[in-house]
Amino acid sequence: MEDLTTTPLRYTLSKEERLHLKRDVDALFASGHAFIAYPLRVVVNTTPIGEGEEPSCAILAVAAKKYFRRANKRNRVKRLIRESYRLRKHRLLDLAKAQGLHIHLGLLSVAKELPTQADVNRGMDKALSRICEELTPKAEEPTNEEA
């Protein structure tokens, strides 16, 4: 197992970090919860790691044919989404390792016009902040029960 203090950050997006198995995609949309961080609709599904497994994060980038009829535009939107995630994934990976989770993300473009990289970056920042906030355990506040 790699230690984050000695391992340099890796800004790659390997096949293990992409959702490609049908069962994983089906599980993501069946039991994940969704929210909008414009121009992205984010679907999140977390599962605890099993014995001998390592925590991981995997993504699925989707651009609808309904909004982008031409394949080159759909590919561009997906490339923008993957690039934005690739540069910001370390916060999520650290959280997955701390919590002992597998995190699967579906990142769907809901923009009707071709978004810019800045738009996608802004949405990705909002999405990752919200995911980290939801998955971080909150300290329980003591309640004053006066009789």
Automatic annotation (TrEMBL):
The lineage of its organism: Bacteria, Pseudomonadati, Bacteroidota, Bacteroidia, Bacteroidales. The keyword Iron does not apply. SUPFAM superfamilies: Ribosomal protein S5 domain 2-like (SSF54211). RNaseP catalyzes the removal of the 5'-leader sequence from pre-tRNA to produce the mature 5'-terminus. It can also cleave other RNA substrates such as 4.5S RNA. The protein component plays an auxiliary but essential role in vivo by binding to the 5'-leader sequence and broadening the substrate specificity of the ribozyme. Pfam families: Ribonuclease_P (PF00825). GO terms for molecular function: ribonuclease P activity; tRNA binding. It comes from the Bacteria. It comes from Porphyromonas somerae. InterPro entries: Ribosomal_Su5_D2-typ_SF (IPR020568), Ribsml_uS5_D2-typ_fold_subgr (IPR014721), RNase_P (IPR000100), RNase_P_CS (IPR020539). It catalyses: Endonucleolytic cleavage of RNA, removing 5'-extranucleotides from tRNA precursor. It is an enzyme of class 3 (hydrolase). Keywords: Endonuclease, Hydrolase, Nuclease, RNA-binding, tRNA processing. HAMAP family: RNase_P (MF_00227). Belongs to the RnpA family. Consists of a catalytic RNA component (M1 or rnpB) and a protein subunit. This is Ribonuclease P protein component. GO terms for biological process: tRNA 5'-leader removal. Its EC number is 3.1.26.5.
